[in-house]
Specification:
5 helices; elongated
Length: 131
Amino acid sequence: MENKHVDKVSEILKEVGKLVEQSPEENTVKLRQSIKDIQTLTQESGNKHLIFLSYFLGVFIEDVWSNIAMDASYKISDEDIGNILSYIGTNFIRIGENIERREYYKCYNDYINLLHKYLDDIKRLKAKVGE
């Protein structure tokens, strides 16, 4: 049963990662939906690594969503937003591949890099608009 959940979470991450990487702004809804799908799956799994992933990505994507929604009304370019989302897509693919191989601890670096780059991007964009 656990393998089924791990495989499905991996599949969701890789699939939505590719979509977001290729067409970031056209797939934001799919990005958010994928997190909801992962949260539903992990509730049943009992796998502590998937549960952590689910919580981390849930909080992370909500923060991204909030910032993008607010910043879109400011002077943030579509290109900047696309770059942030594309990087998220790339990391989702990487996380999905590590989960598929059951290399959960390699995901830790992916989580750190994802969050660190995002926070740097937000700081840079705030400076750009003069906040």
